[in-house]
Amino acid sequence: MGAYILRRLLLVIPTLFGIMVINFVLTQFVPGGPIEQVIAQIEGRGDVFANISGGGGGETTEAMDAGGDTAGYIGARGLPPEFIRELEVQFGFDKPPLQRFLLMMWDYIRFDFGESWFRSESVVSLVLDKLPVSITLGLWSTLIAYLISIPLGIRKAVKDGTPFDTWTSGAVIVGYAIPGFLFAVLLIVLFAGGSYFRIFPLRGLTSDNWEELTLIGKVLDYLWHIALPVIATTIASFATLTLLTKNSFLDEIKKQYVMTARAKGLTERRVLYGHVFRNAMLIVIAGFPSLFIGVFFGGSVIIETLFSLDGLGRLGFEAAVARDYPIVFGTLYAFSLLGLIVGILSDITYVLVDPRIDFGSRG
Question: Which positions, given as ranges, span the membrane (predicted)?
Answer without folding.
Answer: 9-30, 131-152, 173-197, 222-245, 280-307, 327-353
